[in-house]
Amino acid sequence: MRNGIKYDGQNPKLMFEGSAGFGEILCSGDTHISFTKWWLEMLPNGERRGEFLFAEPLTKRGTRIVNNIAEAEEALLDNSSVLVRIDLSGQRKFIDLSLDMIIRKNVVFEKGRTVKNPSLSKAKFSISKPVQVEAVKRVFKVYELKEENFGLSNFEVFKKLGVKLEQQAAETVGDYRRRISTLISRDYGTAKGMVKNAFEGMFP
How is the chain split into domains, by residue range? Predict the structure, then answer.
């Protein structure tokens, strides 16, 4: 096992054993293409693997017309649904106003930071905390460079990243390079921690 990749002869596999639904990634050639194929693989339930694991669950209820007594009884017993009867002979604007009043009375919408709170996620595997996408991309780029180029110095990794970090006025060249090395080491450590957590079902 190396970097989460389990090698089996000429067919290395990335496996998440013990995590239901993950299956395996067959790494043949480009790892990014292999990952994409794994992510888009269609499962028996009709969902793509990546969406099944990490997206919010699909809702089959939605807003629809109730056509029979059984559906009406189901809606009445469902705490997350509201059964509404509409007088179709009324004027549209009054119907809209009535529906708006019913929604305001029965539905509480979360706003702002609460909406983005990962703890409210119902996904099978949700992120453990809010993340900045660009920062995650950077730390994994550092991870790839360090893992694929044994012995590459932190300063060389920094140059390959193409990130700009200006040298401060009172900073010597040695201090500047040490600051960069510290930043790269921190990103590399963060990425390794995220990879380790992934095998325990915690993201990122």
Answer: 1-56, 69-120, 128-204
